[in-house]
Design goal:
The complex is a heterodimer. By secondary structure, chain A is mainly beta. In chain A, 0% of the residues lie in helices and 47% in strands. Classes of the chains: A mainly beta, B mainly beta.
Chain lengths: 111, 120
């Protein structure tokens, strides 16, 4: 499974958009990009995933570059409750996929 | 719908003792995972079950760790004997394999709150 590179930490002002980048230059054609987050003292929580098209759900948007070597997770209006560690993971989907977590990006949303 | 349940939430033991963690996945989820998360790191997969069969245990330290899912529902992870470096949060996750589920549902792993283990 391909590895990812994320910044160690980021700050964001409450109410502003949080843009979290992820590099995955060795991603292969059958691998998806997944985003999970982990709020302090809780288990990780699924946010969104995509293959090559941009995706949006009630939590976030996922923008994947055309060459699929990088992506950005967008939280459109960050709140204090979005403070968490965000993990970008690339893996094959469904039956054969295995999530390999890196160290993630610690997002601090500030009032 | 109830989430993934784990117990105990906290455990403190001395090195060389044994310990067991229990996980009850979301009802109907055939796939169950155990992860180890050391402080400051992301979770690391220890073992994956599909129903009551092991799919992947390549990262499980088999000399001291064991896991079972006898009836394909709940699962137990055991450490015997424990070492200081086993201090971590042990997370259980489950995922559906139902073919009728939507794409997002089948791809999503649902995590429990974890068991925090401290080995002294």
């Amino acid at each position: 499974d391909a590895k990812t590179t994320q910044p160690t930490s980021m700050d964001c002002a409450e109410g502003r958009a949080a843009n979290l980048p992820c590099n995955h230059s060795t991603i292969s054609g059958n691998e998806y990009v997944y985003w999970y987050r982990q709020i302090h003292s809780q288990g990780p929580q699924y946010i969104i995933h995509g293959l090559k098209n941009n995706e949006t759900n009630e939590m976030a948007s996922l923008i994947i570059t055309e060459d699929r070597k990088s992506s950005t997770l967008i939280l459109p209006h960050a709140t204090l409750r979005d403070t968490a560690v965000y993990y970008c993971i690339v893996a094959r989907g469904y039956n054969t996929g295995k999530l390999i977590f890196g160290q993630g990006t610690t997002l601090q949303v500030k009032p | 719908e109830a989430g993934v349940a784990q117990s105990p939430r906290y455990k403190i033991i001395e090195k060389r003792q044994s310990v067991a963690f229990w996980c009850n996945p979301i009802s109907g989820h055939a796939t169950l995972y155990w992860y180890q998360q050391i402080l400051g790191q992301g979770p690391k997969l220890l073992i994956q079950f599909q129903n009551n069969g092991v799919v992947d245990d390549s990262q499980l330290p088999k000399d001291r760790f064991s896991a079972e899912r006898l009836k394909g529902v709940d699962s137990t992870l055991k450490i015997q004997p424990a070492k200081l470096e086993d201090s971590a949060v042990y997370l259980c996750a489950s995922r559906t394999s139902r073919s009728g589920s939507g794409g997002v549902e089948r791809e999503t792993q649902y995590f429990g709150p974890g068991t925090r283990l401290l080995v002294l």
